[in-house]
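Consider the following input, taken from an annotated entry for CHAT domain-containing protein (Dentipellis fragilis).
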Amino acid sequence: MKAWFPQMLLGKGYFCYQALVPAVIQTLELVKYVYSFLAENHCSATFFAGSSARTIAIAASAVPQAVESRFHCAILLYTASTVMAEDDAQLRQALLLSSLSSDEFDEQLAQVQQVQSQPSTQDTIQSVVAPLLYQLESQNYEQFLRMVPQAVEILGNMRAGHPILSKILDEATNIYYNRYSQTGSLHDMDGFISVQQQIVDLVALDDTALSSVLNDLGVFLRFKFERTGNIEDIEKAISVLRRAIDLNAFDPAKNHGRLDNLAISLFRRFEATGDITDVNNAISFHRQAIELKPIPQYFGNLANSLHRRFERLNNIADINDAIVAHRQAIDPTPDSNPQKPHYLSNYGNSLCCHFEQVGDVEDLNDAIRSHSQAVELTPAGDNALANRLSNLGASLLRRFQRFGNPTDIDDAIYAHRRAVGITSDDHPAKADCLSNLGNALDSRFERFGRLRDCNDSVAAHRKAVELTPLRHADTALHLSNLGKSLDSRFGYTCQLTDIDDAILAHRKAVDATPDTHTERPKRLGNLGSSLSARFEAISDTRDINEVLVVYQRAFNLIPNGHPDRPLHLNNLANTFYRRFDHFGKLDDIDDAIATGNLAVDSAADDYASKPLYLSNLATALRCRFKCKSNDDDLKSAISMYRRAIELTGDDQVNKPMYLTNLGASLAELFRCSRSTTDIDEAITTHVKAIELTPEGHVGEPGHLINLGTSLAYRFDHAGDRSDADRALAAYESAAVGKSIARDAVRINAALRWARLCITTHSPDSTTLRAFATVFQHIPRLIWLGVGVQHRYEKLSVVGETVNEAVAFAIGAGEMDMAIQWLEEGRCVVWSQILQLRTPLDDLKKIDPELADELEAVSHLLDRAGSSGDQLLEKSRGTGSAMSLEEEGQKHRRLAERYEKLLEKAREIPELQHFLRPKLIADLRPAATAGPVVLVNVHETHCDALVLSDPRAPVQHVPLPKLTPSVAMDMRSHFLTSLQGRSDSDHDRYSVPVSLGVPSFNSIEGTLRSIWLQVVKPILDTLGYLTIDSSRESIDFPHITWCATGPLAFLPIHAAGIYSSSPSKGRECIFDYVVSSYTPTLTALLSPYQPSPSRPHYTGARLLAISQPNTPRQRPLPGTRAEVQVVKAYFVDKDFNAAFKWLDGKEATKASVLEEMKTHNWIHLACHGIQHKTHPMQSAFLLDESSLTLLDIMQSSDDSSTCAYDLAVLSACQTATGVNSLPEEAAHLAAGMITAGYRSVIATMWFVGDSDAPIVAREFYKALMESHGGDSRKSAYALHHAVKYLREEIGQENFVRWMPFIHMGV
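Applying the prediction step yields:
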């Protein structure tokens, strides 16, 4: 017998016993031999533990039943009973069996034999274990592991298999652990966890052994969470580790490792969920572990938890304690210890954090040294190398941001790229590595302007966000970083998608960051920066208002002495400046300067952003100089710009901006001093700014404009034509060059170009091209991607530009172009809405699929645009910032999609002019029903252009007596005479006003001026100043007026010379022509057509609304009488017309809108109100609500079942308009035309409750009886009705008969 055989049976070799027993173990001598071996080892309990004792039992089971010795039977009994009991105490019982009596022994032996008489169990065990042993001895570990699950399933259900099962699982655990330690494979980690869990579930262990197994299981569950981010893994790890600690309660001194492991797991869960209780408990358990065993590892772990709690609660004591704990981990640890780099890297992180709080530069330098040493001590291939490289890069980046040394940022990017390159996508640290790389690239882009850096930064941050689980604590960090890089790219490319995505990311980051988190001020600041950038692009006042709130919140969270305090002060100062620039409140510019001074004073000269803060403050001072003409402000601004330039290298991206700002300030100084030295330096400075600006940069057009302006100043001063030529070239390049630029900048450049062309007597063709450039950019400036109200606000940028361009075109003899420009630049918002509702028949014939998509997008965009006021109101109420943000972004994406679809349609050869501004040939048919007169008012000259025949050329009628100042005076006098006029308590007036004395002379004088300076020259040119006493008014010529500027608010239809003396006679417009108004020529061309599914009813279907007692308004008893009169012509007389009346409370908003769908005529007898600041909220006042223009616009879609035709607005202020928007016809009447009504009867101001029924009666009488219900003759019917009222009340009662006007066809 070989000497190794007993050892093989007792030790690892037990796996082969089933193969050997049948052939070898046949005699009692074998049992004796085994026993003698046991005796030599004194039969120790440890030696017999586990598989060794079980091996003896199974070996003895093969011995024949003829047993010679009770002692040997005792061995047999012991070994067999061990299989059943697995208890080493059986050894002592077995040794006593030799003293048993024969009967007693036989009884015990019978029990043993009963246990052994199960050949099927032995066969099963043999079949399972033998193949496993073979794979193990062959070192074929992968095959062994594949076989383990089946073995576990079989042996786990066999009581006799438990001892062998434990040994199998032990071997599997060792294999998985060794392989994971070498490769870090997630597969091996999962295998280890699975086997450990099976040991816990299937193997009977004492408390100490079970506690050890649970500790290992908990640690690996934490490892898995750190790899996958699955929250269930860390939850289970914490539960398992708590149980491990509880099981070891009898010996707590040995729990230090388990306590530390539990603390680490709680810390990891805190990082994932942000639950502050977890990090508090983690710190407590770390301290308990240190009390039991103060080793470096535990100090390092405590420091990490303290650091993160500081980031959350901002308690400076935590970061101070963390630094102390890091030193206690580092100092006793030699460089050869593999944990040393880990301690150094974490120490560096805490030092960086401490620097952020107190601003001690030595902290930052020490952090970089610590991180560098950590990287040096980390061997290649170590899983922690990527994290340590990333930490080094972050500290280098922070020092670059502080001091601006290019070497630091290059080294930072190199370190981050290495970290990213060695980290797999499935590793949880990959997201952090990518985010850190993105930050470094973004910082280098901001300093040096390399677009590739910015694009790479955005890509890195997007990938980081994608790899970060939604509930992870770093989600907010990665979102904030992504938003910042998108913000940077937007500043270069002006793509709204970037700034929208940036704001959305910042909002999510802020929402996910608690108020006490140290990063919250920075994330609020980032959100504010993005909102401010978008405000600069689209001027949405909601953005600038929110910016100030966000920046103030951020600033309030920053303690005195914080390194970022200058940054937040600068942000606040910029917001005050932008708000002043938009609203013009002097308090804001004063606040901007005061706050900017604080930002500059709190930033040391070596502060990297100091030049930017100086430049921003200088810009605010220059702005105040323009308002208050304080020379000290301008001189201070110039000094600060010079200082900013001194602190900035030529390779830094902001240098051109500082230079051009200095140049602009010097040009301003020249205008005061007339010193050629100032203007010469200004031009030289501008030239250098342009030289340093990368080609195509978004700032280049602005620099060119500033250069052109300075050159134009010098040309005006010295008369050198070369200066003028250079200025013209600069303006032209800024207006039409290839550089990216905002539309407002392009328009500014084109206007300067055109005006300088005029000054220098350049060819008309060049000047016309410059003005044409303005019109190319107006649609983008007044963009469909924002709400209607916001578009109205943007129109102020256009100002009188359209009138200026039209006046030049007229002077150049380009009448057709003048008409086209007037149409293109007038009523821009209404024209956009009409365009969205234009049938796409031509496109459908060629590309039905494209037409369907464009139609769908147009419909959604139409509703999104008209909902702008609703979003504005929601922003003042309970609407969340995120929901408003998402709505706004959805609107902008629709507009972008609409533009792309238009471009695609225009690529079709037959549709090159598809939905482009109309040419003169398209506009001529507007005069089919009679001449259309467009009046242009500009300081150079005032003119009328007449379209009188679709085939005739445009007639030009100079108006030499009319000037803008005269027109303004006429409007002012007229409106003053109407202010407070109310002839009865039953005027249809929306708000009570004080009563005043009518100014007859002012009204009469205004009407006389309109007649002499505007109307009479036009009628004379048309040959209409002939009165035929036999001619009826139905035979009068019909003129449609389209006035601009101040004339848009004046009653041209009532112009004339009135006299109180019959002998003097009168000369009035209504004695010669019938007048109508139109907001645009397009409104007269092709009224809104319904979809093919919408039936077109023949005959009138009238919906009448009366509101005699509107809550909170004056009673209007005449409205009911008025509708009774109307009813008489629709019900009592046979005119083949349908009639529906909603009176008082019956007329709710819902009921009116529903009935409008089936009625093509509507008569509204009620109060009306013109909303001056939000025109889309102008409304008809119903019983319990208001029917706004927005409601009507949104209802006029395909849900209507008939085409709108005639609207009679018998309410006040339905055609009043808004003084600040003279070219937009922003009133209810124009809105009804845009909604689809072809003809509208409206009022220019309040109307008397007793007068309206008279006008209504006579209007419908003439329309139905004289014109057969033809709405195209509604202007003639109104002419008759007003004439009747005028004769009834007297022509001197102007305010009673003048309000009624006709608009449309």
